[in-house]
Amino acid sequence: MTNKLSKFGFLILLVGIFFVNNFNAQTTVCNLQIDVFEFNNGFRLRDYNIENVNAILTDLATEKTVKSGEVAKTPLFNNLTAGNYRIEIIKNGYQRRIKEFELLCNNIESIQTISKPLFLQKGDSKEITKFEAKSFTVKDDNSQDKFESSKSIVNSKSRSLVSPNYPAAARAVRASGAVNVQVTIDEDGEIIMANAVSGHPLLRQAAEKAAKESRFSPTFLAGQPVKVTGIILYNFVP
């Protein structure tokens, strides 16, 4: 009897491991689409979309390289595992662009396609775009009042401000109110750091996740794209 129970317990353990591995596999694979634009101070994105670029993607963990070639108008890489990558974009008439980034895959229902913007600067394709080590904080007059009224400069610069999901645990206890998320936005308008600095603890993670998925227009200083830091305000109403 004891032997049968042991075998049954071992079987349950194997089934559990299978489901855990299967779940992890679903959460760590996604597609990557690169949307390429031209750097231009005061641009409108639809006017500066660049197609038919050469894109080379490298997995930094394995050093495996995949090339998209010029066949696809928009580079698309399928079935990538979550991790750290380097993308290199080459287009005649533009400086070569190289960027390292972390790819996050978090949709367990299907393989999602992550869209990543990348900007090119006109010039010699043999040259590599290099950004100076400039960054500054976006500030408003009476900034606290503007944060409370959802009118911060950072919010207004968003191209796609993702709304956070209302966590079930927070809804159960009717947690509500404002959450301020401090963000760092890189030269391509992507969020590279998001940290909730105020708000109900049960709401902060959802606000951070939404901030990381949001996209902004590049910010220019003396004609050059720069990193900026600021606050995104989310207001949760039960």
Secondary structure blueprint with pairings:
Layout (H helix, E strand, L loop, with lengths): L1 H26 L1 E10 L15 E6 L5 E3 L8 E6 L1 E8 L6 E7 L9 E8 L14 E3 L5 H6 L4 H4 L1 E3 L7 H5 L4 E9 L5 E8 L2 H13 L1 E2 L2 E3 L2 E13 L2
Parallel strand pairs: 1-7, 8-14
Antiparallel strand pairs: 1-4, 2-3, 2-5, 5-6, 9-12, 10-11, 10-14, 13-14
Put simply, the count of helices is 5
Biggest sheet features: 5 strands, mixed
Derived structural class: alpha+beta
Q: What average pLDDT do the residues reach? A: 80
Number of strands: 14
How much of the sequence lies in strands comes to: 35-45%
Radius of gyration: 22 Å
User: How much helix is in the residues?
Assistant: 10-25%
Topology as a string of helices (H) and strands (E): HEEEEEEEEHHEHEEHEEE
What is the CA–CA distance across the termini? 53 Å
Outline: globular
Low-confidence stretches: 8-26, 141-151
Structure characterization notes:
A hairpin with a 6-residue loop joins β5 and β6 (97-103). It is built from five helices and 14 strands. The protein has 238 residues and is an alpha+beta fold. It has helices spanning 2-27, 143-148, 153-156, 168-172, 201-213; strands spanning 29-38, 54-59, 65-67, 76-81, 83-90, 97-103, 113-120, 135-137, 158-160, 177-185, 191-198, 215-216, 219-221, 224-236. The strands form four sheets. Strands 8, 10, 11, 13 and 14 form a five-stranded mixed sheet that branches. The chain has a four-stranded antiparallel sheet with strand order 3-2-5-6, with no helix packed on it. Strands 4-1-7 form a three-stranded mixed sheet. The protein is globular, with a radius of gyration of 22 Å.
